[in-house]
Design goal:
Elements: H1 8-20, H2 23-30, H3 34-48, E1 53-55, E2 60-62, H4 64-89, E3 96-102, H5 104-121, E4 125-131, H6 138-141, E5 145-149, E6 158-165, E7 167-171, H7 173-179, E8 194-196, E9 204-209, E10 214-218, E11 223-225, H8 228-236, E12 242-245, H9 246-255, E13 259-260, E14 265-266, E15 270-276, H10 284-298, E16 303-304
Parallel strand pairs: 3-4, 3-5, 8-11
Antiparallel strand pairs: 1-2, 5-15, 6-15, 6-16, 7-12, 7-13, 9-10, 9-14
Helix pairs in contact: 1-2, 1-3, 1-4, 2-3, 5-10
Length: 313
C-alpha cells in the first residue's frame, strides 16, 4: 500500500489539533466531521512516518517529533497564506476571515458596530467576533486579534496600545434621592455598591482627587455581577453606586438616567490594548481590521491617549 501524501488539508488539521488539543473542537472550527479530522491526522502520521500526537480520553498532546514538525507546518502554512494574500492583492480587494475577540460589554456596545462599518468598506472580508470576559489563549482558540481591558499577562503577543479608559462614579437620581449623595470618599462605606465578581480587587475602590491625594475605600453591597451590561442595568435601576467606564454609561449620563457621584474624585483609568498573534499580523485583512478598530476606538468619549512613555499594566 502506497504511503499517503502530505497535503495542506492534513497539515492544517494537525496544526489546529496540536494547538487546541481537542478533535471535536477543531472539526467544528474547520467545518469537517470529526472522523475526517482523525483521518487527516492518521494519514499525515503515515506520510511522515512518525507519531505526531498522543491521544488520551481527555486530551490530545504532541509527541517530541510532533512539536518539531508543528513548527515547520506553521511556517509552511503561513507562506501559503501569504502567497494567497499577494495573489489577491493584485485585484485590490482583501478577502478571507479574521477572527477577533473582545471583552463582552465593550464589544456589544461599540466594537460590533465598528465591525459592521469595516465590512461595509471591505465586503469580501468575513469577521468572526467572539465576545467574552475570559482571558483566552489566542493561538489555541484560533483568534487573530483580541481587544483587552485591564492588565496584560501574555507577553508573546504583538501589542498595540489603544489608550486608557476613563471611569467615573455613577448612580441613578432615584438612588441618590433615597440614600443621599456622598460628600467625601469615605462616605461610600455607608452606601450600596454594585460589585464586579470577575475583577480581582473590585472590593476596594481607589480614588484620586482632582487636587491630589489618593483614597482607598472598601466597598460592600448586596449585588455583585460578572458582566458590564448587567452592572449598567443595575446602576440605572437604582441598585447602588459603582465606578463605571464612560464608554459603558456615557449615554445614560447624558440622558439623565445616571448622575456622577463625587465628581472631584475619579478612579484611575484602565489600559485598553489590542493583542495580535505575531504570525497573523502580516496578513492584509488582519492589518486592515486592526488599524480600522484602533482608529474608531480612539474616537470614543472616555478613551484617552496613553501618556508618552506610559506602559500598559
Amino acid at each position: 500500500m502506497d504511503r499517503p501524501e502530505v497535503s495542506l488539508d492534513r497539515m492544517r488539521s494537525f496544526v489546529r489539533v496540536a494547538e487546541r488539543g481537542n478533535l471535536s473542537a477543531v472539526a467544528r472550527e474547520l467545518g469537517l466531521g470529526q472522523s475526517t479530522v482523525t483521518r487527516h491526522i492518521r494519514e499525515l502520521e503515515q506520510a511522515v512516518g512518525v507519531p505526531l500526537l498522543t491521544r488520551t480520553t481527555r486530551r490530545v498532546t504532541m509527541t517530541d517529533e510532533g512539536r518539531r514538525y508543528y513548527a515547520d507546518c506553521v511556517q509552511i502554512l503561513r507562506l501559503v497564506e501569504h502567497a494567497g494574500e499577494e495573489a489577491r492583492s493584485t485585484r485590490g480587494a482583501p478577502a478571507g476571515t479574521v477572527r477577533a475577540s473582545c471583552t463582552a460589554a465593550f464589544g456589544v456596545l461599540h466594537v460590533s458596530r465598528f465591525v459592521f462599518a469595516f465590512q461595509d468598506r471591505y465586503p469580501d472580508v468575513s469577521v468572526d467576533l467572539s465576545l467574552t470576559d475570559e482571558r483566552i489563549d489566542l493561538v489555541r482558540e484560533g483568534v487573530d486579534v483580541a481587544i483587552r481591558l485591564g492588565p496584560l499577562t501574555d507577553s508573546s503577543m504583538k501589542l498595540k496600545p489603544l489608550g486608557r479608559s476613563r471611569r467615573v462614579l455613577a448612580a441613578s437620581p432615584d438612588y441618590l434621592a433615597m440614600r443621599g449623595r456622598p460628600a467625601r470618599p469615605h462616605d461610600l462605606a455607608k452606601h450600596e455598591t454594585v460589585g464586579m465578581s470577575n475583577i480581582a480587587g473590585s472590593d476596594m475602590l481607589v480614588l484620586h482627587g482632582r487636587r491630589g491625594g489618593r483614597h482607598a475605600v472598601p466597598l460592600s453591597g448586596r449585588l455583585r455581577v460578572d458582566h458590564g451590561l448587567a452592572a449598567r442595568e443595575a446602576l440605572a435601576a437604582g441598585r447602588g453606586i459603582a465606578p463605571a467606564h464612560l464608554w459603558l454609561v456615557g449615554d445614560l449620563l447624558t440622558a439623565g438616567r445616571l448622575e456622577r457621584v463625587l465628581p472631584d474624585y475619579s478612579p484611575p483609568p484602565v489600559p485598553l490594548n489590542m493583542l495580535i498573534v505575531p504570525e497573523r499580523s502580516g496578513i492584509a485583512r488582519v492589518r486592515l481590521l486592526v488599524d480600522f478598530l484602533a482608529e474608531q476606538i480612539a474616537r470614543l468619549p472616555g478613551i484617552e491617549k496613553t501618556p508618552p512613555g506610559g506602559k500598559p499594566t
